[in-house]
């Protein structure tokens, strides 16, 4: 597992860089997924579960983006998932140029899916296209079902909303239906999943969604 230091990209428009990256990944038939959420919503835990469940169905690798520490990439390596830790020089998001450099270091061209675990927050990552085919956001049940009202851009920019930690639903007054309706107002096409990476509940539907998206690139 390696760690790379990334600085802000300075050349060209982010939109053009993102589009070019997406096209390259499509040419290689690699599904590239950008995972976004507040800190601690369960991105790494979900990736660990996906990696186990998708064994034999899809080969994955991971870019872990954080402002500091190598903990998440080491957790992926511990279960045999190729990963790279990207430090964002204090920035709260990844852009397409930073993502391209991380992908080059990852050398994941033989993979079926590559996941970018973006920096944990619900604000800046929504503003930057990373070149991913899919933007998937996580919201854990302890965060509250009002979050679509407070962070509308994140919900509007995401192809899928994954409500996480459903095993803890009984401890929080989180209304899955209400949250889903609020998200759908902002983004009528959003795909919604409710999962527990701890118990595996709901993971099958999310995995089928990812496998279908990957197949569409073949
Ligand atoms: N009960 C329960 N706990 C979970 C679940 N998923 C994650 N957690 C716990 O939530 C905490 C944060 O999980 P992480 O996977 O590290 O979250 P993250 O989004 O990767 O965090 P950052 O990388 O710091 O933004 C850990 O203590 C996990 O064990 C779940 O499905 N159920
Ligand atoms: Mg993490």
Task: Describe the overall structure.
The protein has helices spanning 14-27, 43-53, 71-78, 96-106, 147-150, 152-157, 176-186, 203-215; strands spanning 2-5, 31-36, 60-66, 83-87, 113-117, 134-140, 160-164, 191-194. It has a single domain (17-215), classed as 3-Layer(aba) Sandwich (Rossmann fold). Strands 1-4-3-5-2-6-7-8 form an 8-stranded parallel sheet, sandwiched between helices. It is 36% helix and 20% strand. The protein is α/β, with parallel strands linked by helices. The two termini are 29 Å apart. The mean pLDDT is 96.
Which features does this protein show?
36% helix; binds guanosine-5'-triphosphate; alpha/beta; Rossmann fold; 218 residues; 8 strands; single chain; eight-stranded parallel sheet; binds magnesium ion
User: How is the main sheet built?
Assistant: 8 strands, parallel
Query: What do we call the CATH homologous superfamily?
Result: P-loop containing nucleotide triphosphate hydrolases
- The mean pLDDT is 96
> How many domains, as an integer?
1
Q: Please give the share of residues in helix.
A: 25-40%
Task: Give the N-to-C terminal Cα separation.
Answer: 29 Å
Structural class: alpha/beta
How do the helices and strands follow one another from N- to C-terminus? EHEHEHEHEEHHEHEH
**Class in CATH?**
Alpha Beta
Which stretches of 5+ consecutive residues score pLDDT under 50? Answer: none
CATH A-level architecture: 3-Layer(aba) Sandwich
User: What is the 3D shape?
Assistant: globular
Strand order of the largest sheet: 1-4-3-5-2-6-7-8
Percent strand equals 15-25%
Looking at CATH, which topology would you report? Rossmann fold
């Amino acid at each position: 597992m390696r760690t790379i230091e990334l600085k802000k990209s300075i050349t060209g428009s982010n939109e053009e860089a993102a589009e070019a990256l997406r096209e390259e990944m499509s040419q290689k038939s690699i599904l590239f997924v950008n995972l976004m959420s507040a800190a601690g919503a369960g991105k790494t835990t979900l990736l660990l579960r996906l990696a186990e469940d998708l064994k034999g169905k899809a080969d994955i690798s991971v870019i872990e983006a954080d402002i500091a520490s190598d903990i998440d990439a080491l957790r992926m390596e511990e279960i045999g998932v190729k990963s790279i830790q990207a430090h964002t020089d204090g920035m709260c998001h990844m852009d397409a140029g930073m993502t391209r450099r991380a992908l080059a270091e990852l050398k994941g061209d033989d993979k079926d899916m590559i996941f970018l675990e973006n920096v944990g927050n619900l604000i800046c990552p929504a503003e930057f296209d990373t070149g991913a085919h899919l933007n998937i956001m996580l919201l854990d049940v302890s965060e509250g079902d009002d979050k679509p009202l407070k962070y509308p851009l994140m919900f509007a920019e995401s192809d899928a909303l994954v409500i996480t930690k459903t095993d803890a639903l009984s401890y929080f007054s989180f209304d899955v239906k209400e949250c889903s309706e609020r998200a759908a107002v902002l983004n009528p096409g959003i795909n919604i999943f409710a999962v527990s990476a701890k118990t595996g509940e709901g993971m099958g539907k999310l995995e089928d969604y990812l496998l279908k998206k990957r197949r569409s690139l073949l």
